Amino acid sequence: MTGRATGTSPGTPKKRLRVAGIAAATVVLAVCGVLGYVEVFTKGIDRLPEKPCAGAVDRDLAARALPSARKAEERGKLTTSSALDTFTYWCYVRTDEALISGEAQSGIATVDSWRERHSSPGGEESGSLSVNGVHVSVRSEPATAFVYIPCTTPRHAGDGHDAHSLTAEARTVGETRAQGAELRQILADFAYQLARHAYRVGECQEPREFPDELPRIGSN
Question: pTM higher than 0.85, yes or no?
């Protein structure tokens, strides 16, 4: 009498379903692995402080200006020069491939001399505005933003000089996510926020109400 096999042969439906299930699970894990890589390694800027450079600027400006990156770093620093009797506040956010940076420096300049010094080679700005004593100028090639604010530091209070100032400049290096007018607006906002922070850190004596944000370049 012939006996019956009690095991399940490799070709049975039960075996095929088990193999298909393992294959499907493998695909799901592979997809999750790819998504995990994107999450971990393309958001370096998002892991920086909400306000980089010791609170000087908004992280969002750097995120909008620079491409995604595996890692990013930021730094803000105040330096002083006893010889020149000035201070400078430096700020940068950078990845391996790109950088947005700026500096705000106290000194002596009238708004007219400042405009002349930072005008484009042809003498024309890409855009400018003035609000509450803050003057902003941007140019296209290379994309750069400049800010001028009257500022008398404590050491010069009462000396009668009417051209004490704080000037700021911002630019990018390398590839950028934003282009054209959008990039110039980001740089204007970056330079403005940096100048506003330096104004307070440097204890500029003139009382001034700073708007939360600049009007959009070209809107006024």
Answer: no
